[in-house]
Prior knowledge:
Blueprint: H1 2-22, E1 39-42, E2 51-55, E3 76-81, E4 85-90, E5 105-107, E6 116-119, E7 126-132, E8 135-140, E9 144-149, H2 152-160, H3 166-180, E10 226-236, E11 249-252, E12 258-263, E13 280-289, E14 296-305
Parallel strand pairs: 12-14
Antiparallel strand pairs: 1-2, 3-9, 4-8, 5-6, 7-8, 7-14, 10-11, 10-13, 11-12, 13-14
Amino acid sequence: MKTTALIRHTAAAAAFALAAASLPAADNAPAASPLPAPAPVYNQPDTGSALINTLAAGTTPAYPAGESAVALPPGWLAVELAGPHTIYVRDTDLNKQLDPKPGAALRREPKTDAPVLTTMEKGDTVELTGQKGRWIQFQLNRPVLGYIQSAAPAAEETKDKPQATSAPAASAAAPSAAATAPSAPAPTAAPATVPPPASSVPPAPPVVASAPPVAAAPSTAAIAPLPRSMKGIFASTRRAFAPRRPYDYQLNDNAGNRYTYLDVSKLLMTEHIEKYIGRDVIIYGLAEAVPNTKDIVIRVETLQLAK
């Protein structure tokens, strides 16, 4: 009897498993297909939120797994934006290790009103890639969640919208009524009065005394500070048992020759500057002549790794 009951239980379990396998998966994720038109990506499912990206027409969005469990407003879809992402963090949002604090706003541009791409989460990995004033540039190495509008709600609204057919008929009747009205005769224009011709003798040109040529003032553009953006290898000028250079850092070419000295005193993270030594960088700042020498120094305002 026990053997018969066991056989029946096993058969029932197998039948249940077969029936469950034949049912469709309960997943509300949309089918991945190319976008017919460009799709703005927002950081919240709301057109009033920040615009963080735009997916080009023909792009196949990546829909996050398990997002069907999250309730979204009608007409919105969640998409994943693959990393890495270039983000900016205010220096006040850094910890002692010079990493963004959890919850810090990660912005798309180095300004306070720039869109927030996402916020720093515990366990996120970032790489410092540059500095622009009080803004620190990082590379975020994880996907970011965004939201796009689906075209389905718009299609339904167009489908349910009543057709206004009476307006054209009324407008068509208006011209026929106007056509039956008699046209008034056009007024006859009065003959234009032609003023008498002016004297044919042209007035004599004024006599201008010729002034002696004035020598042009010397241009100061050559000696005025000029903003420059340069790419090269960030290097230290400090050498053991060697005289101290005017500045501690310089920009070199690939052969190790100096392009210019670098004054990094305007950068706030000078204690972290050693990280750039030996790497290709792009710097921006005012170029000036070093007094009593033929050398140039750039007062660095922004410093970032070259891609």
